Amino acid sequence: MSSTYRLAAQPGFWRSLDLRDWAYALFVLVVCAGAFYQYDHFMDVYEEAILAGSALSLVALGWFWKPWRWYFPLSGVTSLLAIQVYEHDLARAQSAFLLKYMLSSQSSIMWMCTLFVLATGVYWAGLLTRSATLQRMGSGLTWAACVMGLAGLGTRWYESYLIGADVGHIPVSNLYEVFVLFCLVTALMYLYYEAKFAARQMGAFVLLIISAAVVFIVWYAFDRQAHEIQPLIPALQSWWMKIHVPANFVGYGAFAIAAMLGAAELMAMRGWLAGKLPPMEVMDEVMYKVIAVGFLFFTIATVLGAMWAADAWGGYWSWDPKETWALIVWLNYAAWLHMRLVKGWRGAPLAWWAVVGLFITTFAFIGVNMFLSGLHSYGGL
Amino acid sequence: MRFAIGLLTILAIASIIGTVLKQNEPYTNYAFEFGQFWFLLFEKLGLYDVYHSGWFLTILAFLVLSTSLCIVRNGPGFLKEMKAYREKASDTSLSLMSHSVELDGEVEPEAVRERLQAQGFSVKEHQREDGSRVLAAKKGAANKLGYFFAHIAMVVICIGGLMDGNLPLKLGEMSGRVVPETRNVPQSQIPAQSRLSAGNLSYRGNVTIAENRSADVVFLNAGKGYLVQELPFAVTLKQFHVDYYSNGMPKLFASDIVVTDKATGKETKATVKVNHPLVVDGVAIYQASFGDGGSPLELDAWNLAQPQLAPVAIKGVSQAAQPLRANGQAYTLEFGDLKVYNVENMAKTGMDGDKTLAQRMNDARSVKHEKALQNVGPSITYKLRDGQGQAHEYHQYMAPIMQEGASYQISGVRRQVSEPFQYLRLPLDDELSIKRFMRLNAALATPALYDEVARRTADKAMQGGAISPEMRAQFESSVKWVLARFSEGGFPALENFLDERVPQDKRQAVAQTYVKILQGTVGDLMAVADSRAGVAPLAAEQNSYRFLLDSLVASSALHDYGAPVYLQLVGFDQVQASGLQLTRSPGKNLVYLGSLLLVIGIILMFYVREIRVWLVFRPGRLRLAMTSNRHNRDLDRDFDRERDALETLIREQP
Ligand code: HEM
User: Fold this and answer.
1) Where are the domains of chain A?
2) What is the distance in angstroms between the Cα of B394 and the nearest Cα belonging to chain A?
């Protein structure tokens, strides 16, 4: 009797893992072990620890978010294919067909851009016609864009080593690279919530901000040649960079999603696109959740930034414009969360605030680089 | 809370001002930028160092206080709530909960307890007086701990920050105990009131040390002036290293230093690099900047007013000033930095508009662009100041620089720091020396040679049939006249003459004649100068002709050079200097601890869900009630699942 009852309880975590989870874990561990055996002699203790940590994080991520189990290996294999075709010769990017049109980092990234723009159109078409099929296509295109984006960054990492052994570095070191990262992180986070809340209508809004970033990327590459790989100046030669920058972009991406949902919610309140948007409570909740995640990562990123600054600039806090704006962004979302949690605010005020928050965040992200000078002046326009 | 939000808003606005207004600049810059009135007002408000101004620190202190008060006020209640199961909740309050249902039927309380425990709840049982039984369960109470962690973290971080801030220094300045030094005097002469003892708890200062020199103090910025901070040790710079990538970007800055403890004499040798500071006795030493540390220089001074004289060798030291006498006038020669490595992009920058679409696509695809980057070698800047205090600034490259296939000695000149340098190219001879050009320039300034030069030019012109014998005398005098004019003021002198004396419609033609004459005669001038100096003449070839034309341009430009001498850098002995930043920040560990608490607190607050469940068992009826700290769909789902489970259980009841 009580056995049926107990069975109805949620299974324990380990028991919830299926064969594919284990297969994925095995794949990640094998790849990391392979990397370890091949490159161990280049690594110091920290790097070995980081490799192990990355392997575990990747496994955890795959177990937590199932689509990651195919997404990550697929992107990785795409990058590896590009690396194979390169045959250690950067010049092949302009001659080998596969590299020229698909797999060189720049081609991959341009494909990512194209797919994001397509996805935006398809999501909107789906939203306006209430077509579930079109919205599913939108998701598919977004996923495809994410695969090309991550593969592109992976390939770019490899290409930087082809330019020179001393030039090679992880592609999160300048404004161009982090914009690609921003698109990628925002899209992936969105895809997570889209599936979790079965609300594909949100895509039309979130993809708009990604498309805006895409426009910037394309302009930045074609007009300013910003995609060139530059070596790292001494201040950037630090392990902290590898964690600090991506953590920051989880924050920025999350805040961007929240703002777009805020906009959608405000439209819903005015009765625009009536019956086409997801329920208000869903948008409200996703907005809260995504800000909570963003806030956590932004906090971590800021703390890591402080630790890095303590190594590079002689102090954990120098009131450099970028640092100060990070603090302002942080305070802004801390206040947002207080209002929701402590004062119980809901609805329009928080939606407006999330939208305004995006302007503050954008200024911290790009405005500071454009208008203010300081220690962080690596990514000038 | 409202008060706290108000303070936070002010803090945020102040921070924004601090980022828009450049902080800690020399006060004269501000005065210049804002004008006297605003400058004084802003100074009163402390806007030049917002983050250390009294009011900013006061707001921070208030926030710490208000957050502490909040912890103290909410704390006990929170703790009690965390521990409590609220098993005595009344039926009414349970039925009023948004997630509450009464089911018909009965189940075994033990089975329910087992299920709850299997899900991680801790359970407390309560027997009511009316005979009903209550199971109260809770999970995720750590969520409340998150509140403590996050808020205590704020307090801890602020205290750490205040420890490292310059509050004690500000107080010292206000009480007049500490007075910033504003004069530019040697360190040893700075009075005690501007010095801080080595016992100072926290500081952050800079010092520049040349190679093989030592420093045992650092300098702290303090409003209008600076303070001298004594160190418990002396730092000696053995050597400074800079590496560059092939594209000229810096790759490595590193200082080999020796730290000698003043008390024990213990030596610590280390190399500090960017991102790799050295910590000695709680003082961290950082690589902050680098530069020239005063390098001995050797220069050749060519007298431009008397170009016939041979150059004079002079010695100097970069970053130092020395007197210079030239042609009876006294000047001051103020050397700037010696730069040993100058990377320039030598590619011609084609206009972007010229690119085809295909080229653009290729560019966008390629992550590496070929740039004609080239190290053009050492350079020195200096100012030459005359008796009236007027100065021109010069930028001299030491090595010959190739441009379009010919080599030049390049030097820049400007009248104002805000202007770009105007570059002068002196053509070089086969030995890559400026001697031949200087010889030509000297000959140009020697009217005694003009007769012979004019004769040679006329001879050639006659041979070529360009002039008739009758015209010879007039031709020669034209040549001499053009040479004389040119030697007075270069091309502009000829131009001036044209503008003043020649009718507009003829100017073009006359100008062409002058240029032709100059071009025709410059070779003869060179030949005469060479034969006088006993040097082999210039070979008759294309390159020589280009050399001569370049010489005319350079000679003309020298009239605008603004200096009585041309200083050519011929040797140096590089001494580098390293800018080190030394900090002592005992609050750092508190800040890190606070940060850790903060992150843990946020995770607990957002990712631990507090859930409470109540079950009231009475004959024939069963109430299920649930609450969570956050009302959302997760709770709806959990509630539905529990209710379904209970209903199943009731149905299966025998
Ligand atoms: C790290 C992010 C933070 C989170 C998630 C957070 C969360 C909370 C929560 C849940 C409460 C409500 C306690 C209650 O139920 O009464 C609260 C209250 C409060 N928090 Fe925060 N807090 C954070 C950071 C801060 C910061 C940065 C400050 C100011 C420096 C601050 C100052 C306060 C104050 C003054 C209260 C009100 C206490 C009262 O008057 O009851 N908190 N916060």
Assistant:
1) 65-232, 244-381
2) 29
